[in-house]
Amino acid sequence: MNTLIKPTADIFVLYLLGSEKNKDLLLSFINAVLIDSAFPPVKEVTLKNPFNLKTFRVDKETILDVKALDENNNQYDIEIQASYDASFPARSLFYWAKFYTSQLNEGMDYFDLKPTICINLLDFNLLEDDNQIHSCFMLQEKNNPEMVLSDHIILHFIEIKKFKTKIKEMSPELYDWIYYFKYEGEDEKMKLVIDKNKMIQKADQEYKKFNEDDHLREIAESRLKYRLDTQTFIKSAELRGKKEEKIETALKMLQKKYDVHAIVELTGLPINEIERLAIKLNQKSNES
Prior knowledge:
Layout: H1 10-17, H2 23-36, E1 42-47, E2 64-70, E3 75-83, H3 88-101, E4 116-122, E5 134-141, E6 144-159, H4 172-183, H5 187-194, H6 198-212, H7 214-255, H8 260-267, H9 271-287
Parallel strand pairs: 3-4, 4-6
Antiparallel strand pairs: 1-2, 2-3, 5-6
């Protein structure tokens, strides 16, 4: 039996919430997040970049871009993405800025800008010292949090790993959606929400369809491999950088006639590598 694709996989989230046929699911999910933070719900959503299997690229960011209208006819730009990256706060701000500034075309006024809301589904714990599953950040005055500079920047972070079934301080709508993203694929657990929530019932059917589609699974697995390979490359580059710094330090110490054992202790480089560096340094010195 094939291993199921995780419901938090970014390509599945894009497939689930970014398909025209699933706009009811998208509306349900967005409103679950907004209502949980006491924001007005939206009544209408338009997909700016609907999921398209033919144009999907494994090596490209998967961010769902949505235009929304609330009950008072206020417009919003909403972007949704799933992530595994611990550097996400900076990335989220970067993408918020990108989406926000992209609204302005030549001849437009700053007053034409609409609020941009980012909803981030995280498959890791971002805020380790906080037990909140759903956090919402805005531009607030430091000594008077009730004073909000602008409602144009709203960042939602949903940390799925923190979710536990016995939670009281969450709206039932968001509870069901987070439950879905954490437990989808576990049939016995899913029965608890499928029987009472038609949106989750439909989302469950979409998950099964996705996993039964060999082509979608292949792309999802390729996407996962690409992400893991990228992380490995970045980590290797960091390690190479650290080692280069150590080698540079060792060379400086050798030039100043430090004891080899002292250099080993300070840099952590093996003694045979320090000795090789010393030989190269002597050769260069003799050549000059």
